[in-house]
Automatic annotation (TrEMBL):
Record field: transmembrane: 86-104
Alphabetized UniProt keyword annotations: Membrane, Signal, Transmembrane, Transmembrane helix
Signal sequence extent: 1-21
Protein name (database record): Bacteriophage spanin2 family protein
Amino acid sequence: MKNLTMILLISLMLSGCTSLNEVKFDSTPPSNYIGKDIKITTTSDEIIEFKVESTTDSTLSGEGKSVKMDNIKKIEIKEFSVIKSISLSSGLYILGAAIIAVIVL
């Protein structure tokens, strides 16, 4: 019973949800990406993920990686989703309660 409780608590702690949202990089100034975790698909279909540390008008850089804006096909920003996190946590609580009820009854 103690192990089940510990597993449930650890699951709840790790239940933060993030999602990747595609942005139109033509209309967004490069400086808006600073500090954000991004996933870039290049024109050669290479996928590069990093946290943006600096930008110029022609490049995005971070974590030792640099991508020229001309080579970017698609940019996705990783964002935390409060609603998904609350839903997942609530679902895990209900699941945990159901498991405990089945074990006890």
